Every structure is written in C-alpha cells, then in structure tokens.
Amino acid sequence: MPNSLNNQKPHEVVVIGGGFGGLYTAKSLRKANVNVTLIDKRNFHLFQPLLYQVATGTLSPGDISSPLRSVLSKSKNTKVLLGEVNDIDPDAQQVMMADKFVPYDTLVVATGAKHSYFGNDDWQKSAPGLKTVEDAIEIRRRIFSAFEAAERETDPAKRRALLTFVVVGGGPTGVELSGAIAELAYKTLEEDFRNIDTSETTILLLQGGERILPFLAPELSQAAAKSLEEFGVSVHTKTRVTNIDHDIVTFKQGDEVQEITSKTILWAAGIQASPMGRILAKRTGAECDRAGRVIVEPDLSIKEYKNIFVVGDLANFSHNDGKTLPGVAPVATQEGEYVAKVIQKRMRGKTVEPFKYNDYGNLAMIGQNAAVVDLGPVKLKGFFAWVFWLLIHIYFLIEFDSKLLVMIQWAWSYMTRKRGSRLITGKESLSFAKVITHQPKMENS
Ligand SMILES: Cc1cc2nc3c(=O)[nH]c(=O)nc-3n(C[C@H](O)[C@H](O)[C@H](O)COP(=O)(O)OP(=O)(O)OC[C@H]3O[C@@H](n4cnc5c(N)ncnc54)[C@H](O)[C@@H]3O)c2cc1C
Question: Domain range spanning residue 380?
C-alpha cells in the first residue's frame, strides 16, 4: 500500500477544494511540519450558507467570498494553486491538472457536492439551483426581471405567471429562498412599482417529504411552516414535482396532479456529489453511494489507500450511529480539522481515534425576526432564534475575512428592509421582457 508518511523529506499534503472541508484541513496544518498545496478551480472560498442573500439582492457576491490566498496568507507552509483537478493516480501518488501533475504523500479530497435533479437534468434550464456565485446572480436576475416584466405586462394571465414563484425543496435553502422572496414581494418592493401590486405575488414552496426542515424537531418544522405561511409563502408538503417544462411545473399531491405556470422556478432539492467521487472510485476501487459520495473509513480515509482522505459533502461517513452525516458546513470543518490531526499523529507514529462528529445543533432562517434553532434540549424560534442565527453567521464570517462590516451592513438592510444589491446583470438581462411562450393550463391559485 503506497504510504510514505514516515519518510524524511518534507511531507507533501495536497488538498483538492477550498470549501469548508479543504480550507479547514489546510488551516489546521498551519503549524505542522508539512508542505501543503491547496488546489481549487476558484480563487475564493465561498460562504454558501449566505448565497441565498446574494440571490435575493441583500448581499453582493464579494460580501460572502474570501480570496483563498488571503485566508491562507499566514500559513507559510501552504501554497494555493488555481486550477481544476481532472484525475488522480493513487499509485504514482499524484493529481492531474490540465497543465501539470502535483505529487503528494497525503491527499485530501474536498470537492463538495451540489443539488440533484434526480435524473431529470433537463429541468435545470427552467429551474436553476443555488450552489455557485454564478447561480446566485442568475437567480437574482430571474427574480428581479420577473417583477420588471410584470410591471410592463398587460395580459393578466401572463402577469400572474410572472408574479408566481415556485421553490422546489423544503430544506434550509428552499425555506430561506422562499422566505426572502416573500419579504421582497410583500415588504421591500411594496412601494417601488406603479402598475403592479407586488403583494399579489404567489410564492409556493413544494416539499416532497412530510414536513419542511426534516432534520429539525417536528415542532420547529411546524413553527417554520407557520412563519412562512404568515410571511405569505404557500407551503405544500408531500408534494412531488413530476415535470418541469419551460415555465410549467407539474406536481402531485396524493393522487391529485396539478400544473402551475411560473416564470421563476427555483430548485433546492437533492444531493449529487462532485465528479471527483466517481474518479476516486474508478482509480482506487472506493465505493460510492447513490449520490456519488465516497464511502469512507472511520478515520475518513479510503479503504485501499490510507493516505487518501475524503472530507465534507463528498464523503459518506456513517460510523457514528449508522446514519450518514449531513452535508453541512460544521461536518466539513470538523472533518477537515480531524484529518489534519490524523496526518500529524501518523507522522509521529501514533494511532488515532476514529472521527466523531460533535453536533451542536441545527438552525434555519425564515425571514426578518423569524428563524428556528434546534440545540437539542434548547429549542428557539422567532426573534431570539433570529438573533442567534445572526450571531453564529457573524462569528463564522469573521473567521474568514473580517466580515463584521458586511454583517452590520446586512443587519441594517434587514432592519430597513432595503436590498441594495438588486442588480439585474448578465447576457440575458433584458430577455425577460419577451412574452411567455406557454399558456397556463390551470388558473394559478
Ligand atoms: C445554498 C446553500 C446553502 C447552504 N446553507 C447551509 C447552512 O445554512 N448551514 C450549513 O451548515 N451548511 C449549509 N450549506 C452546506 C455547506 O455549504 C456545505 O456542507 C459545505 O460547503 C461543504 O463543504 P465542502 O468543503 O465539502 O464543499 P464546498 O464548500 O462545496 O467546496 C468545494 C470546493 O471544491 C472546489 N472544487 C470542486 N471540484 C474541483 C476540482 N475538480 N478541482 C479543483 N477544485 C474543485 C470548488 O470550487 C469548491 O471551492 C449550504 C449549501 C448551499 C449550496
């Protein structure tokens, strides 16, 4: 088994991915006697939990992104390479980029995951998901263009379709997006238009499962659904989307099939690992789950290659209580920190306890003064949960790039209900003014 953890030359650690998992691995190796190379196809770390704020015009992309070089500038043993890793040769111990090979003694793969269309990838064009800065800008374009086009539209049916927003998926992203769109429509934009009444906007949140935010205690899911309804979001649980064709969403509630026409359909469901999962499986024989996540050992390594670790959303770790750990930032950061410890301990010839995730709780934002926080015995909802959510996010953003100013600005825009980043940009910035090609088959409720 190739493993050169005990040799004399500087130990080379290559980390693929500068998200939460990769970045925390690299940061935790700052004082270790190793050389670290962090490779990412983007030159910045993206704070994904606040992407929905960019998509709905509260924050700008730069507010939630930190250049990897600056985050790691004090880690003198670490170099950052901008580029995409296309392949891995585990026997030669090197990763392949388009223009170079990078050798390693230990490899940490942290390339993440994204949403999944459950085999219906053709829905993506009509219903974009939220994962990257580009996704957020595209969603922002669609949301604000819909209001602009509605202002110009004289046909009531077409106008109704423009003022109908459908969000698919009742996890945190779906809840946050639909809550933020409700705030936009019913509060922020209230006085900004002359021909339309934005309070006539319809917002639907479609969730396949029995309840939204299923990872929370049932009473918090219920509280979140109630708050969303109060904000003006129509929450539909046990509702499966069966088709998306241009601006028509077909969904099934029990035996009843319905169609709704919406110019803005957003996707926030499912999980699909990044392609690096399949590449690892092919090259190392590692097993993947149905979502393409790599099934890892108790120490987050791969069975046949103890010097290759997988952390974060790309890893399927189920050695704590048999359940796969969720794809959330605290899991990725703790796994990154753990792997950094394993690398150092192995170099000293020491054994390492298996990874144990410390679950401090879950939280989700619904809208102004409304969030839900589940800390096990302590459960918060409403205003106090909202303040807690805010403080936690301030804490984590500051870690990255002194983003206190951003959070103050954000808190201010929340209180004043102003959204300063309502820009419509991109190549298709005016295309929304075109007429709708599909007529609604059913009157939107
Ligand atoms: C919209 C949204 C909202 C979320 N909200 C929350 C939340 O409120 N709370 C929470 O805890 N979690 C939330 N999450 C989940 C959280 O962001 C992820 O669990 C976390 O980012 C996973 O970290 P990671 O390091 O595994 O992957 P990522 O953070 O996705 O990082 C992967 C990195 O790998 C790079 N990369 C990928 N492929 C390659 C390649 N071939 N070569 C080079 N580089 C590559 C990417 O550019 C990226 O920088 C949210 C996620 C999304 C998308």
Answer: 121-269+368-429
- The most distant pair of C-alpha atoms in the chain lies apart, rounded to whole Å, by 75
What is the value of pTM for the model shown?
A: 0.91
User: Up-side HSE of residue 172: CA atoms within 13 Å toward CB?
Assistant: 20
Beta bridge partners of 154: none
Same domain, 249 and 318: no
Q: Tell whether 33 is covered by a domain.
A: yes
Number of domains in the chain: 2
Most ligand 1 atoms within 8 A of CB, residue of 15, 40, 48, 173 to mutate: 48
* Distance (Å, whole) CA 13 – CA 256: 55
Helix-strand-coil percent breakdown of the chain, rounded to 5? 35, 25, 40
Q: Are 438 and 246 in contact (CB under 8 A)?
A: yes
Nearest one of 187, 38, 190 to 109, comparing CA atoms: 38
pLDDT digits (tens, 9 = 90+) for 167-205: 999 999 999 999 999 999 999 898 889 999 999 999 999
Q: Answer yes or no: 443 catalytic.
A: no
| Distance between CA atoms of residues 89 and 75, nearest Å | 27
> How far, in Å, from the CA of 298 to the mean position of ligand 1?
22
The CATH number given to whatever domain includes residue 405 is: 3.50.50.100
The separation between the first and the last C-alpha atoms of the chain, rounded to the nearest angstrom, is: 62
Alpha helices in 73-171 (DSSP H): 133-152, 156-162
Residue-wise pLDDT for 239-279, tens only, equals 999 999 999 999 999 999 999 999 999 999 999 999 999 99
User: Which residue lies with its CA nearest to atom 6 of ligand 1?
Assistant: 49
